[in-house]
Specification:
The chain is α/β, with parallel strands linked by helices. The chain has one domain. Strands 1-9-8-2-5-3-4 form a 7-stranded mixed beta sheet, with helices on both faces. Strands 6-7 form a two-stranded antiparallel ribbon. The chain starts with a helix and ends with a helix.
Length: 283
């Protein structure tokens, strides 16, 4: 009941005020999760080669972005009708995606945990594209998981594919010429291939490469950012059909995501331990 009241209040607030509140929530969360914050800052120092003070500022910004993204997510039902006012989806990006779809072999949107990835998905869907997103369900906690799933499917219009049992659905979508969204910056643990990510060994999912080899689907680098001066404004871009490159593979996929992170490190989810399998929880 308390959660429902909180969500109603957020949806009643003016959008910019809600984002300010979200930033405050992010800052509070950073204080509460101080042990995880310490580890995130240490990973930031190691992977980006920056000093402790800069790493601390980057991780602080990451938590602010996380808080704003959470508030935006809960406000999706009131944002949906005007989503194109909150996030740009340039015509050249839409044209690139249409050209990839026209090949008829399916499309994988390779993306990462930058800015607000779910808002970006809602904007792409609003432009008329059907998205199937690979998602790993979290533990149900007081109905939070079911609420998240409801917003993801009913409000954004995404079709969710359970990462644990959805390989047949992924095959079906690609064979029918559809679009599958894959977050390529997750720790693959024991199921992955050890590659370098931001200069450190990491377990990396190789499904993107295997799916391209099996179906010939186009792999499109999909990036989104939050405006530095106006946090309420976002941009989603289809940057390139990566699979057209001769050197397409896991290393190239990682290089592209690394570039995004280095450009706007405060927008990446440093709370997520990309290197847990290879370096352990102490890093």
């Amino acid at each position: 009941m308390a959660l429902k009241i909180f969500v109603k209040l957020l949806r009643f607030m003016p959008h910019r005020a809600a984002l300010v509140f979200g930033g405050i929530i992010g800052r509070i969360l950073r204080l509460v999760l101080w042990r995880k914050v310490d580890r995130a800052e240490a990973r930031c120092v190691l992977s980006l080669g920056v000093g402790v003070s800069i790493a601390r500022e980057i991780v602080r910004g990451s938590f602010v972005n996380l808080g704003m993204s959470a508030v935006e997510f809960l406000r999706f039902p009131v944002m949906k009708a005007r989503v194109d006012e909150y996030i740009d989806f340039p015509e050249e990006s839409q044209a690139l995606l249409r050209s990839a779809l026209a090949r008829g072999k399916g499309v994988i949107l390779m993306t990462s945990h930058m800015a607000n990835w779910e808002l970006a998905a809602m904007r792409v869907i609003h432009a008329g594209f059907e998205l199937h997103a690979v998602y790993t369900p979290q533990r149900n906690d007081g109905g939070v998981e079911s609420m998240i799933a409801d917003i993801r499917t009913r409000t954004t219009g995404m079709h969710i594919i359970d990462n644990h049992k959805g390989i047949r659905e992924i095959f079906r979508v690609l064979k029918s010429g559809g679009i599958v969204v894959i977050m390529q910056d997750l720790d693959a643990r024991k199921d992955g291939v050890i590659t370098k990510f931001l200069g450190l060994p990491a377990s990396t999912h190789d499904g993107i490469v295997k799916l391209h080899e099996k179906f010939g689907c186009a792999v499109v680098a999909t990036h989104y950012t939050r405006d530095k001066d106006n946090p309420a404004h976002h941009v989603v871009e289809m940057q390139e059909i990566l699979s057209d490159r001769e050197n397409f593979g896991l290393e190239l996929c990682s290089e592209v995501i690394e570039k995004w992170i280095r450009e706007r490190p405060e927008l990446w989810l440093w709370l997520m331990d990309r290197w847990e399998y290879t370096l352990g929880k102490k890093r």
